[in-house]
Amino acid sequence: xxxxxxxxxxxxxxxxxxxxxxxxxxxxxxxxxxxxxxxxxxxxxxxxxxxxxxxxxxxxxxxxxxxxxxxxxxxxxxxxxxxxxxxxxxxxxxxxxxxxxxxxxxxxxxxxxxxxxxxxxxxxxxxxxxxxxxxxxxxxxxxxxxxxxxxxxxxxxxxxxxxxxxxxxxxxxxxxxxxxxxxxxxxxxxxxxxxxxxxxxxxxxxxxxxxxxxxxxxxxxxxxxxxxxxx
Length: 231
Hints:
About 60% of the residues lie in helices and about 0% in strands. It has twelve helices and no strands. The termini are far apart. The relative contact order is 0.11.
């Protein structure tokens, strides 16, 4: 059968939360059994989580590099796998403590990480867009600035686990203010005031170029989007 990479507790915490969202009716005992085996490949067959961690770490690496803080190459492995060596990650934690980011700085880092996690979620879960049982979820496939604060914060199941390892604390109030300003600026930039404006924008936007199957449907029938998020 080969070596099975055991999931870390960090990965399992995020996976459990994502399972509850993705499969709310799944028997709890079954979920517990899947988690107890700690088999990442098995868990990934139900949810696409490792890819969200990957893009989150890559974005974090880019952002911290500006402050000469190096995210080690094996940091993703530390987050995902229980047996991964943690020495380099401990050095990163020390560097972050020395830098002592402010509440606003941490929030600005966090919102950018959430942004890329959302785009990756859209790509990894594009098939759900066509699931007739999940029509209510179609608005989640809009650009990050339009999905609404409540949906944006769902990606904290990944972000918070990364930050817990790093010792960073994201204050929801600061994150909320940043998101609302981002949404307001986006709507102003693209002149989005009504649902009709939104439909037209999505119809011709390049956003869905990363998911051509969704792009085709949106351009043919843009009114399948759920509601206007801009206020």
